[in-house]
Amino acid sequence: MKLVVVSAGLSVPSSTRLLGDRLAAATVRRAGADADVEVDVEVVELRDLAVEIAHNFTNGFPGRELAAAIDAVTSADGLIVVTPVFSASYSGLFKSFFDVMSGGDKDVLAGKPVLIAATGGSGRHSLVLEHALRPLFAYLRAVVVPTGVYAASEDWGAEGLAERVERAAGELAGLMVGLATGPRGSGAGAGAVTGAGGRFEVIPFAQQLAALRP
């Protein structure tokens, strides 16, 4: 399976990229431990695509690296998207990338599992996940996991952040595995197991998530 991390961090090193890497590592670990599934990770650094994103707005055509990034995101089995907080919302670079990728097609991420995350200097901006990021990906018809992860400067090294990372990663891994073994995979359907007589028994999604939590 393929997991793509989209990071809108601007600095090097970047706390935004660091959070994306932690979430990816936890998702890979949970998918392997809970479902024995191997996950490959690819990272898309938006700062490296800033010029091509700007050119796409003016000429309507993606450059080679931007086109490769868009293909990686649209073909992924799951996404982790991480942005720094600018003016109490996602960064302009972050929004511009998804505007270019969708190109007016709001179904471009339809049904794709997405974990939303953000970094900021203060915990006061943690609601950016709910008032900005979640509505954006709901509009693109993605399946956003229940737990978003926000990391303020004081959160690094704190137990609370580690717990949120693990919980969100478990939810994303569960969705990725469930969809991969569903109609697009083996045909069993997400959240279904084979019961007596070859019939399928539907397991409620809340029960599946509860089983993934540490």
UniProtKB/TrEMBL annotation:
Top EC class for this record: oxidoreductase
Q: What keyword terms does UniProt attach to this protein?
A: Flavoprotein, FMN, Oxidoreductase
The keyword NADP is annotated on this UniProt entry: no
What is this enzyme's EC?
1.-.-.-
In alphabetical order, the GO MF annotations are: oxidoreductase activity
Is the keyword Lipid biosynthesis assigned to this protein?
Answer: no
Q: What are the NADPH-dependent FMN reductase-like domain coordinates in residue numbering?
A: 1-156
* Protein name, as recorded: CE1759 family FMN reductase
Recorded source organism is Streptomyces lutosisoli
